[in-house]
Design goal:
There is one protein chain. This protein is of the alpha/beta class. It is built from 14 helices and 12 strands. The chain has helices at about 15-25, 45-55, 70-80, 100-105, 145-150, 170-175, 190-200, 220-225, 230-250, 255-275, 280-290, 290-300, 310-320, 320-340, and strands at about 5-10, 30-40, 60-65, 85-90, 95, 115-120, 120-125, 130, 140, 170, 205, 215. It has an 8-stranded mixed beta sheet with strand order 3-2-1-4-10-6-11-9, sandwiched between helices. Strands 5-12-7-8 form a 4-stranded mixed beta sheet. The chain starts with a strand and ends with a helix.
């Protein structure tokens, strides 16, 4: 049995796959198994690429499955993993060669301690490279410090803990024991299905200082053509699913976290509507933000906002007039053009 199972979901990403897989196979930490989950790729390339890796490195195994989406893919990888620790890497991203060695050096590796160790990451755009880290200070969180952190995981402008399943070593039992919470219908912020209950259950959470090992690739064309007309439905599912997780784990006062999280996700929904194009934009934005239940949630939830970008979005959400919508649309379009 290897020390770490690295799970890589694969779907029509032939252009980026080799960068990803080679960055994992060439890790300075060698005691790994690499599970490539081909989620029914239709490009005629990825399935064969995955099979070729198994011929070149005995640590690689491939699972070909019918398409079920990203969450179903990594869940399949977990179910077929054999290591004590799991690391997720998405197939269009890549990692520094010392990531696993650096993360593994910080685990307790004791049966009585359920461990999570997290690094930071770099956002990789065509014309921009930006470091992104945890809001909480680097260090080891356990006992009272960990409990305090659990009461502000969601709803903050900068999350104290990055809730992506990637860039982390997570003890396998923290994932397996919580798979029953996963709602595969959720398509936005879906990683919280597993990282939220895992953090609520862990005995120790370690946040590395620096350690920007993980490179998250954003693809400009997907941003322009990935309009989701069901975003609000998705947001409602998140609210119900994640509230249930908090309640079942006995976290008091979770509703205020969830209300703040809901409103902050509305920032993403506003950008979703604006990026769909100017034609019909005013009608789309007003249809969302003039709904009584959305207006009430925005006005009854107290948020601390320091980011200029978020202040702009917040103003438009609270007063979705044609002028505010047009101004916000133009500024967002200029930003996207500059950074992509």
């Amino acid at each position: 049995m290897s020390a770490i199972s690295v799970i890589i979901p694969v779907y029509n990403i032939a252009r980026y796959l080799d960068d990803c897989v080679q960055s994992v196979l060439n890790q300075t930490f060698k005691d790994i198994e690499v599970i490539l989950v081909d989620d029914g790729s239709t490009d005629g390339i990825c399935p064969g690429m995955c099979d070729e890796y198994t011929k070149k490195d005995e640590r690689v195994k491939v699972i070909h499955k019918t398409n079920g989406g990203l969450m179903a893919a990594w869940m399949t990888g977990v179910e077929n993993s054999t290591s004590k620790y799991i690391c997720f890497v998405d197939g269009d991203d890549w990692v520094d060669l010392d990531m696993l060695e650096s993360l593994y050096a910080r685990v307790a590796n004791a049966d009585e301690i359920k461990d999570i160790v997290s690094s930071n990451y770099i956002i990789e755009k065509k014309n921009e490279k930006k470091k992104a880290g945890h809001g909480a200070k680097p260090g080891v969180y356990e006992g009272a410090a960990l409990e305090e952190l659990r009461h502000k995981l969601l709803g903050e402008e900068v999350r104290p803990v990055i809730l992506s399943r990637c860039m982390k070593l997570i003890e396998r039992r923290l994932i397996v024991d919580n798979l029953h919470y996963c709602n595969t219908s959720i398509k936005m912020a879906e990683d919280l299905n597993i990282t939220l209950p895992a953090i609520l259950d862990c005995d120790r959470l370690t946040i590395l200082e620096d350690g920007y090992f993980y490179h998250y690739r954003t693809i400009a064309e997907s941003m322009a053509h990935n309009y989701d007309e069901k975003f609000l439905n998705n947001l409602e599912m998140e609210y119900v699913t994640y509230s249930r997780i908090f309640e079942s784990k006995g976290i008091a006062g979770y509703k205020s976290q969830m209300d703040r999280e809901y409103v902050r996700m509305l920032f993403v929904e506003l950008k979703n509507e604006l990026r769909a194009g100017w034609n019909g934009c005013i009608e789309r934005v007003q249809k969302v933000f003039k709904r009584i239940e959305v207006e009430e949630r925005i006005y009854n939830t107290q948020l601390d906002i320091s980011s200029k970008a978020n202040k702009l979005l917040y103003r438009c959400m609270k007063n979705p007039s044609p002028m505010n919508i047009a101004i916000t649309y133009i500024i967002l379009k200029l930003y996207d053009k500059k950074t992509n």
